[in-house]
Records
---
Amino acid sequence: MFSIEEVKKSFLVSIWFMFLTFPIMVIRVNTIYKIVEWRWERMFYIGIGTFVISFIWRYLMRRKEMGVKKKEVGEDALPLAQRLLQNRRVSYPAIALVAVLALIYPFVFSLYQANIMITALIYVVIALGLNIVVGLAGLLDLGYVAFYAVGAYAYALLNYHFGLSFWVVLPIGAAIGALFGIILGFPVLRLRGDYLAIVTLGFGEIIRLILENWNEFSFGPSGIANIPRPSFFGIDLSLAETTRFVYFIMIGLTIFTIFVVNRLENSRIGRAWIALREDEVACQAMGIDKTKTKLTAFALGATWAGMGGVVFAAQTTFINPASFTIWESVIILCCVVLGGMGSIIGVILGALVIKLLPEYLREFSQYRMLLFGAILVIMMVFRPGGIITSVRRTYQFKGKSNRHA
């Protein structure tokens, strides 16, 4: 139950907040009639709202502390979300429901909504790629958008100069992304933490500035327009049909990405990434090739960014360097952190929340970014592990029992 001390603290917080906001929320100077208007009802609303928010905040903090104590004594080892995912009676119907909704989505909702979902799925794919680098290998990459830009410009330039189609450039974009991942990986093999983040940030800015200033190669700030959309066996499709086709391409690419990333996580190289993330010195002492492990993480992570960039160029039919700023890297990193580093389901949910929530909060256009920021802060305070926390896989050996006749 709630104590009188908690109520008292919440009351003092509301009084203090009313005092701080008094000049802004209550006093209004009417310059036309040269009078001062006093809006005392706003003070009442601020006081009540602040008291309720403070009260809820203290309640949630207490729940969080109780959860930490339960984990320390071994209770509730798995979070509720993980238990539900492992329960086949819940997970299988949920997967079937998601599959049905995914199939009917572009036919039920408008073309605008389908385009939003395509963008969200692109971010799901590239966020899963970044999850390899950050979530599994523990390498903080702030220049990830560079590989995204490389894939987009690979399709635009190869189509402009050589007439290559989307289907031809898609694997080429993935290969070029992997090549640039290796190029970035070699100089940063000895770097960790903040130093690694600064170098990768610089790499991303170098790629963007090259694309913006090398006019003969990338057409500079003007960008490249009239990029063709994916074709379906040479059949001419309308705009609505093309949008649905790109949507199903992204559904297939997302499923393929989930399958590959899941297999990688449970493979030998995946366990090497996790060991590298936990303790680099111990990882090397156990005989794991640190150089090969890091380069593989950078290359495979950049592969998905390259493919996502190809689809992005095909969807928008126009690209320029302004689409690949540092803020895109931050948004992709937020998808991984918010969803849960190392958790595939969590990263998917994080990417969908990051990309869809601002679109559906357009009705609150003046306050949507404030609400979005508040949601992120609340998540980081009460769910620091993300929406779905990655649970470390454990292995248990059960020997054969000796049976005597």
---
Amino acid sequence: MSPVVTLPKNTKGRDFVVGDIHGAFDLLDKALDAVDFDPAKDRLISVGDLIDRGKSSPRCLEYLEKPWFYAVRGNHEDILLKMCNEKTGRLNRAKAAFNVKHNGAGWLLKETPEFRKNLVRAFKKLPLAMEVETDRGTVGFVHAEVPENMDWQEFKRKLRTQDKETVNTALWGRRRAEQGDKTPVAGIGRIFSGHTVSETRALRLGNCFNLDTGAVYREKHPVKAAGCAVTIADIQAAGRAITAPVRGAVNAVTKRPVPKNRPFGRSI
């Protein structure tokens, strides 16, 4: 798979994006029901981290096999690629011990080598970034972030050449979220990402939307983490709708399109 994938405009239905799932696929099922998702014409794009920590992590393959589901690679998918042998399905003992302890990868120990081989094959196909054309311009998707002071076109070029620093930032970067940097990324209408948890609501910084609202914490601790959710949004929804406070177990945004008199990238 190319490091960057461009999807054609969806002329039949709607395009949705979902934040980090981390195995909370039961919540994703509810979110899709909440937005009346139609698999015959709608598409769903994930910003990565399909696995680890959540009880339904194995269901990632179920979703990856659906023709309407697309995903970019998250750091947790990348972690698995580095600790699992594609030919044998065996886990590197030292790396597995670390990731079981620190990254919620214990579920992998219960899976067969054949299943783990299938995971590796599926994750190797995931691009590092994705973009889709819409009536309001190009929308980009990356798991973590675009490097500071880099425009979208340069970002894509460096991903295609496998520039290590750029790839690392795309998978692991937290600078924008931690510093609250609202500087827009040039050359793109808006960007959706995840990786850094923002409880109670999605985070908007410039033209970048972080949709990791802690879905797996809501699944594991429904009372203590009542402010967390799986966030799914129409990629053309109004910014204020996407960042509205979480309601219930899902934060589903579909009803409020971007006002026609306002371009992408503006604060709305």
---
Amino acid sequence: MDELRITGIQARGFHGLFDFERRDGQIFLVDLLLQLDLSKPGKTDSIEDTVD
């Protein structure tokens, strides 16, 4: 298995249960780890075989 890791994505969202959450927004942080087989795109070097 190969790993694709993306860390520290930040976005401000304006939704929530309370009025102040929708008014002021809040920061959402995302860390992502994908474990997948990249052997085919590694061999073909074709964009159609990559993760989308």
---
Amino acid sequence: MLHYDMPLYRPPSEGNNLIIQATLGCSFNQCSFCSMYKSKAYVARPLDQVFSDIDRAAASWPEAHRIFLADGDALALPADQLLKILQKLQQTFPRLTRVSCYATPSNILRKSPEELALLRANRLTLLYLGIETGDHDLLKKITKGATQRSIKEALHKAHESQLKVSATVILGLGGKQYWEQHIDGTLEILNNAPLTYLSTLQLFLDPEVVQEFAQKYREPFQPQEDIAILHEQQRLIAGFNPPQPVIFRSNHASNALALAGNLPKDRERLLMQIDRVLQGEGGMRPWHMRRL
């Protein structure tokens, strides 16, 4: 079928969907906690190569109806180039209903409202965006390349263009020192910017980024234990009052406890689930079953 330029990453929810590499690597690639594209230099793939992959994929999977554009942030492509890819996908896959990709706040903000609306009209309807944290100091410590303000602005801009956003927050990112301000700063974003989906991951540093993370953090990092992570999750859910209902998940394999519900509707049920585990009545995911 297709020969991908490895490593290849995609959100868990895209596991059963077709993946087309529109770019290789990540256009930013400086987040200290992330090892995903450290082995790759960012490049926009030539359109003829992308189109060739699309044709090969259609030959073996003509009924594909959901497509994820890899690698790290296909939205970094110029709007006209991305539009040509979307139009080719529509011409090639008659059952196409959705195209999605990773995005950074800066890549959303670089697109005009008219460009985003045009991409949305051509089936790019879902963006995956890593918030990670909303705390000003932690965003600098992890070299996220974004601020609380820019993340809010990007989320509002995507919403105004009718693009759905699936956002992630990394529990444990503030360590023992800053966990409260990590969660409170994150809530400042979540309670003031519209999302469709929210997921939490649990901090796990690949050995190849441990040194970079420590250097950029600029002080000894004290990692959170699982029980402390559950208190972070508890504080996040208890304080989450989104401007519109949000589908919430913590079922990523890195998490100590898998949760699922709609917020704010299922807030009390989710908090009760966490309470039961904290009281020793429920089990957490064993370490051997966790991974990035």
